[in-house]
Amino acid sequence: MREVTAARKKAIEDKVLKKTLATWTKIQELKYSFESGRASSTKELNNFKISTPVNNYTVVSINSLKEKQKDAAIRVIVVRQGILMETQLNSKSIRKLIFKDEKGDMTHELLFTSTIQQFQNQMRNNNSYLIFDPIVKQINQSFPNVNPKLELIFQVTTRIEVKPDISYALNFSFKQFADIKNNSWKDEYHDVIGIVKRVKHLVCFKTSKKPTAYRREIILINPMLDTITLTLWDDLAFNEGLLLEAMETEHPVIAFFNMKAQSYQGVNQLLSFSTTGMLRNPICAEAKDLNS
To answer: Is the torsion defined by CA of 51, 55, 61, 63 positive or negative?
Structure first.
């Protein structure tokens, strides 16, 4: 009999586990659908068919979500796609996305190893979605959070739908470029909006903590022809920075929020952090003025 190598054995185990998980997920989805009256018959349950109409869910704002809430849906816009991160614990992968909803409430969503492949190509910056059945849990105070109380986790039964017709009354508090450059704003977060003047190339480098890190500078200009430099780091420099680079010649209106000021050669610049987000042409008076 041919000896089964450790690598071959692991590949077989992973394949069986994946198939078992997929089957279990379908059964749980259909069981839930059937028990809640969504499945029309036992035959439908046995044939692995499911339909989940939007009106069977309660669509709520992010801050109205309750821990372990069921049958909840939220309407959101992606303001940061996040980047794949490897943890030191069991070599697990995590991807973190940041959303805003129609009221301006914000939270992040975590994708773990089991759901990254399922959702990684479905969520894009500046696109709007309905999200059904995420896991709602309390935040981990040991890490930076965009919401003071809760975070969301995608599970294998979570479902998303593209909703391009959603509008957002966002609660920005934009500062003037001159105010940011000429004042001391230590440890304060800032929102800023302007027209993209220049997108510099992505810089890749190593640090003592990261084998691969990214940095990119963006220069914004306003109607008074004032400019300000924004330094984007890591996934924001890579993902959202790549979008901006592709649109540089169009000079789009861009809003960044939750950025911090730092002095460089006597002038304040803005730096991104783990809670920074970006939107193209947000629905607000300032963007309307810049586009006119």
So the answer is: negative
- Tens of pLDDT, residue by residue over 227-267, are 999 999 988 998 899 999 999 999 999 999 889 888 766 77
**Residue 265 token pair:** 């050669």
Which residues fall within 8 angstroms of residue 52, CB to CB, at 6 or more apart? 33, 38, 132, 159
Dmax of the chain from CA atoms? 79
Q: Which domains does the chain have, with CATH numbers?
A: 1-47 (no CATH), 57-170 (2.40.50.140), 177-291 (2.40.50.140)
Separation of alpha carbons 68 and 179, rounded Å: 43
Residue type, 225: L
- In three-state secondary structure terms, 284 is coil
Quick one: residue 288, left, alpha or beta (phi over 0 = left, psi -120 to 50 = alpha)? alpha
- Give dist(CA 119, CA 123) in Å, integer: 7
